[in-house]
């Protein structure tokens, strides 16, 4: 049986919340440690992927995988 949006949110909310917090903390640590260092293209790629994950366009998982496969 197909779940409703509310059921899926109930199921995934805490996991997604935790992963987003972890991601934000990792960006903070990386950016603090890289002050004054030359830009790293991997960080730019992670920012791109974070943007894809939060946009409202379809097929986010496919687009994230494609962005990762461009490396």
Give a structural overview.
With 71 residues, the protein is mainly alpha-helical. The protein folds into two domains: 36 residues; 34 residues, no CATH class. 75% of the residues lie in helices and 0% in strands. It is built from three helices and no strands. Helix 2 runs antiparallel to helix 3. It is flat and about 50 Å long. It starts with a helix and ends with a helix. The model has no long low-confidence stretch (mean pLDDT 95).
Could you outline the blueprint of secondary structure elements for this entry?
Blueprint: H1 5-33, H2 41-54, H3 60-69
Helix pairs in contact: 2-3
Number of strands: 0
> Regions with pLDDT < 50 over 5+ consecutive residues?
none
Strand portion: under 5%
Spell the H/E element sequence.
HHH
Mean pLDDT: 95
Distance N terminus to C terminus?
38 Å
Task: Report a brief summary of the structure.
The protein is mainly alpha-helical. It has 2 domains: 1-36; 38-71, no CATH class.
List keywords for this structure.
flat, 71 residues, 2 domains, 3 helices, single chain, mainly alpha, 0% strand
